[in-house]
Amino acid sequence: MLIQSGILVFAILLAVFAAKFLVAGAISIARQFDIPQFIIGAFIIGFGTSLPEFAVNLEAALQGNTELAIANILGSNLFNTCIVLGLVGLSGVLVVNDDARVKDVPFHMIAALMIAVCGNQLYLDHINYHQLMLSHGIIFLSFFAIYVYYTLLEVKQGADHKKPLHAQHDIAISQHSLPSSFSSIAKVVVGLIGLVIGGELIVSSAEHIATTLGLSNRLIGLLIVGPGTSMPELFASLIALKQRNTALVLGNVMGSNLFNIFFTLGITATILPIPLDFSLNQAVLLNFISAVFLAVTFWFVRRKHMGKVTAVLLLLIYGVYIFVSII
Predict the structure, then answer these.
(1) Residue 232 Cα distances to 48, 53, 123, 158, angstroms
(2) Chain Cα centroid distance, residue 33
(3) Which end of the chain has less neighbouring CB within 10 Å, N or C?
């Protein structure tokens, strides 16, 4: 048990650092091929922190462990929304810009609603299965394409609310030297290998821990694997808070959550149907409640920064989530 717990922690760290290697190598290769910086920023940097979740879900789907796959996404998104935004929001300096109000947060609410609707046909359509299927995966991927298209279009056209994002991506890209092609490819290869090994170790150790403790893969995914793979978002947000540069925290968290649902879950559902265990509806419901709460708060409370009351309520939602998950 102790050994498997250590392996799980090591595997999560391996996946996180492998994602950084992969992103660094991909940035260098993209620069060598003169790919526009706004594309590098939106794809490689913008979604790079979500690669650990993607690796875990891909491995879980290939092994047929669909319970862990969807629990990983729900656990990761709830951690991002409630803990990451809640902790940064307590400082009173978490910036809420118009871009987040108009596009990111509503899109996030739609994504949370789609999981609830697509995964509950048994209640809504009175059919005999309760799962995310290939058709749902295609719908998720279509929404992801729409979100990415508008994001790229806004950045390329220099929309005012995207200028801070573009500027930070330019800084991040310029900080990466232009090494040899061999070095760049080596980083990508090492990153991919690390993600594959990390994902496989996470899934196998999580299954072993669940079996030993008599717990479900669902609970391990919700409370351990999901939050563990969200560490890059938490660290990045805390660094931004320390530097008093929180203008991009909300957009980055929303972008990560959308990537998790529309892309990662979409790809997973195209590989293998994902049965939605009835008990997971508690997490699905809380995920939707937190998304609606953010959207309504930002629409009706027109402040430039997230209020501390909002942050405390997000943390309380996560406390309720842990309680109902265990019970």
Answers:
(1) 9, 11, 36, 28
(2) 28
(3) C
Segment (H or E) for 123: helix 121-124
Q: Is the pTM of this model over 0.85?
A: no
Contact 14, 194 (CB under 8 A): yes
Profile the chain (327 residues) by mean pLDDT over runs of 10 residues. Answer: 78 77 70 58 62 80 78 89 90 79 86 86 66 88 87 65 54 54 73 78 77 76 80 77 74 84 89 79 89 89 83 92 82
Best CA proximity match to 239, nearest among 98, 84, 105, 17 = 84
pLDDT of residue 317: 93
Can you give the pLDDT at residue 289? 93
**The pLDDT value given to residue 313:** 93
Question: Nearest to residue 75, comparing CAs of 303, 313, 282?
Answer: 282
For residue 277, what is the domain's CATH number?
1.20.1420.30
Domain count, the chain: 1
Beta bridge partners of 79: none
Identify whether the C-beta of residue 107 lies closer than 8 Å to the C-beta of residue 260.
no
158: left (phi over 0), alpha (psi -120 to 50) or beta: left
Helix (H/G/I), strand (E/B), else coil: 107? helix
Number of neighbouring beta carbons within 10 Å of residue 158: 10
Domain with 310, as residue range(s), is: 2-326
